[in-house]
Write a structure and sequence with these properties.
Blueprint lengths: L1 H29 L3 E2 L2 E10 L2 E8 L5 E7 L5 H15 L9 E6 L5 E6 L3 E3 H8 L4 H20 L2 E2 L8 E6 L2 E7 L6 E2 L20 H5 L6 H17 L8 H10 L5 H5 L7 H8 L11 H11 L7 H10 L1 H12 L31 H6 L10
Antiparallel strand pairs: 1-2, 2-3, 3-4, 4-6, 5-6, 7-9, 8-11, 9-10
Helix pairs in contact: 4-6, 4-10, 6-9
């Protein structure tokens, strides 16, 4: 019996090794492949809907992210992909990732080209720095609210707001710029004919109770709940609930989390606890009724002076080496993604910034060269 167990263990190890080798060769084989004017350079991540590659436009020489979905043989897969592209391409807010183009190859691979973002996911930011100062957390959340406000104005809910789908980066040498990504689960308020009304979509730790109970009947307030869970994570460095997916879903329906200040073990600005807990109300009518209302409430309890561009610039300059090291570690991590992690576009790049430097800038150089605004009264 022991011998059989040993053979079983060896066979399992060999299978994992072969799988890893095949994946590595497949990834390398894609490098250099062309999709219209785009040439793939390296794989930078994958999620439930497909794979994401760093690519370059032949004429513009612009670094781009290309999302691929293979074997989209079913009508539902094609519809979801086209819906993601069509919804995201309407959004032009500077805090939303921009879509440039999309198409389909002769072998049936669907793809679209979008803005390539260098930076950290909010998950990585907390991994690097722990719970954020309330001023910084609110400054980032206000940008997420602004992105979602435009989407909601088009009648579109994101349905998967979570730390891995929000990037923070340096853009034009301005620090702490937020980009909301991955509208793969987005849909119109009224729902879509392709949706199965009994299918749960999203990430359990950030799903609203109504997304668990009635996933076909959601509105913008479901994203408000997810924003509350995101705020909780940024302020405390921990997620609302822990455990298996089934346990977390049950907790979303029935359990009330600790107040953020209690979980953190430190005081927060007066009123901030209450705002986060209102976002996390089980009944949508008890929450802020829109992201605009939420943003206004956050702005009243945490003033803009609590985290300024001066603070952001100092953070990026101080942590440039740590950011690069973290992204290098992430780029070499070939583990399979689990349900609470999504792909990220964050990778080290050396593209030329013709407006700010005569030559290429690495991510480290961008972080160190970030513009430091003159402080008031200086």
């Amino acid at each position: 019996m022991a011998r059989i167990d040993a053979f079983s263990t060896i066979a399992h190890a060999l299978a994992l090794f072969v799988f890893a080798v095949v994946r590595a060769f497949a990834s390398k084989a894609e490098s250099g492949r062309k999709f219209g004017p785009y040439t793939l350079e390296e794989k930078i991540g994958e999620g439930g809907m497909g794979e994401v590659y760093k690519a370059r436009h032949a004429l513009l020489r612009r670094t781009t992210a290309i999302k691929l979905i293979r074997n989209a043989s079913s009508r539902d897969q094609r519809a979801r992909f086209e819906r993601e592209v069509q919804l995201t391409s309407q959004l032009t807010h500077p805090n939303t990732v921009h879509v440039y183009d999309y198409g389909r190859t002769l072998d049936g691979t669907l793809y679209y080209a979008m803005e390539y973002i260098e930076g950290l996911t909010l998950w990585q930011l907390v991994q690097l720095d722990g719970a954020l100062p309330p001023g910084r957390a609110v400054a980032l959340l206000l940008q997420v609210c602004a992105s979602l406000a435009e989407a909601h104005g088009f009648g579109v809910i994101h349905r998967d707001v979570k730390p891995d789908n929000v990037l923070v980066c340096v853009r034009g040498l301005v620090p702490d710029v937020v980009k909301v990504v991955d509208f793969g689960l987005a849909r119109a308020f009224a729902g879509d004919a392709e949706d199965d009304p009994d299918t749960l979509v999203g990430t359990a730790r950030y799903m609203s109770p109504e997304a668990v109970r009635q996933p076909s009947r959601l509105d913008a307030r479901s994203d408000v709940y997810s924003l509350g869970a995101l705020a909780y994570f940024l302020l405390t460095g921990t997620e609302l609930f822990h455990g298996t997916t089934d346990l977390v879903l049950s907790q979303q329906l029935h359990s009330v989390p600790q107040r953020p200040s209690s979980r953190l073990g430190a005081e927060l600005p007066p009123g901030l606890d209450e705002i986060v807990m209102r976002c996390l109300a089980k009944e949508p009518d008890m929450r802020p009724q829109s992201v605009a209302e939420l943003a206004a409430e956050l702005g009243r309890v945490v003033p803009a002076s609590a985290w300024t561009e001066v603070d952001g610039a100092a953070w990026w300059q101080r942590n440039a080496d740590a950011v690069v090291a973290l992204l290098r570690a992430a780029s070499s991590d070939d583990r399979e993604p689990d349900e609470s992690r999504a792909y990220t576009h964050a990778r080290i790049d050396t593209t030329v910034d013709p407006f700010h430097a005569p030559g290429p800038l690495t991510l480290r150089e961008r972080a160190r060269a970030v513009r430091t605004p003159r402080a008031k009264g200086a």
